[in-house]
Specification:
Helices cover 36% and strands 14% of the residues. It has 13 helices and 19 strands. A hairpin with a 5-residue loop joins strand 1 and strand 2. Helix 4 packs across helix 10 and helix 6 runs parallel beside helix 7.
Length: 470
Amino acid sequence: MEDHWVNSGSDLHLELTGDGTVRERLMRALREAIRSGRLAPGTRLPPYRSLAGDLGVAPNTVGAAYAELVAEGWLVARQGSGTRVAPRALPPPTRRPRRTVPARRRPVHDLRPSSPDASAFPRTEWLRSARRALNAAPAEAFGVGDPRGRIELRTALAEYLARARGVRTTPDRIIVCAGFAHALRLLGEVLEGPVAVEAYGLGFHRSLLTGAGLDTPPLRIDEGGARIDELPGTGARAVLLTPAHQYPTGGPLHPERRAAVIDWASATGGLVLEDDYDGEFRYDRQPVGAVQGLDPDRVVYLGSVSKSLSPSLRLGWMVVPAHLTDELLRVKGERELWSGVVDQLTLADFIACGGYDRHVRRMRQVYRRRRDRLVAALAERAPHITVSGIAAGLHAVLALPPGTEEDTVRAARRHGVAVDGLGDYRHPAGVMPPRDGLVVGYGTPPEHGFAAAVDALVRALPSASAGHGQ
């Protein structure tokens, strides 16, 4: 039989397909339209003569189809009201089987080193900056964007980074990104050859590089940071470092190694990727200046607001050498599609008016007090646990007895605490002996819940006699 596509004057779209007479195919199409919800209960259908005219068939064919669907309960027909979809024409929904896999219970206390205290976001000051920025923004700000990012933000960043982090740059050397991961993806598309990484670090960052086809040979780390003397043996063309505060073990890169990595880059034509993820939060002295200040032509400086303000803003930046700028902009694309203009303009004002500095100073005090409370609780209730990496940042490393890390993470989960094991950060190809430990973030919990989080953590820690051979 020939297929018919019906479009009546009442915008009733029906596709008559399959076998059978026109009446049978029309009834089938109407049932499907009702079942799928395209024809909702109460919808008035076109008069059967109109629909018959659209179909080019006898009116009694459509009338018979309507009458049969009324008899089946799909339609209702009333004098003066026409033919409508029955109020309960839809069959009852099929009951889904009960869930057999229990839903994962959210932790009561989040001590993962993932983000700052979300409750401390400076809403009032941010809103003031948003209003000022929107009132001052030119009309062209809301058109097609510059792939570098808004000039207002790049100008504010150039001033702030020079003052607070010792970065040497100009606005045209800054590229705004949607956070560190976005920047690393872009770099992965323009770098050639292996990229050396620290033997302990985020596996996600390594996967971004390996996903771009780049090997990631590991560098051992010690109390002075990454072993820069191992770089020549890796064949690396670039190295990714966290020199202000090694992630996650803590501690800055030793001054001699800072100079050594610049010497390596200059001698080999290599590149240093400087991840300054929490450089503003130092508690024992003034923040350590960026390595980028030693040689802006051999260092890509990477920063974001993920730790200082919120990871949900999706705002980060790269300060790039001149020879990389055009290539990075090419892979980023001609249109700015990653970071919203309003957030960029707001952050620019927030920095320029001093709000960002005030917020960082305030949170530095908050996080220092939290660190001190964590250290004091451990000294009192678990003195056998050594704490390190506490001179800066938003996390500490707790050394555990050998062989106890996995059991401790499970015990913490039973106490409602989400915490990372140090082993999760170890490079799979690393030659360093494994270390048992916890990476404890003290930035995430709200202030009112911090004491309970620390108490639950301490109760999950192993005793002094735990470990292999004990």
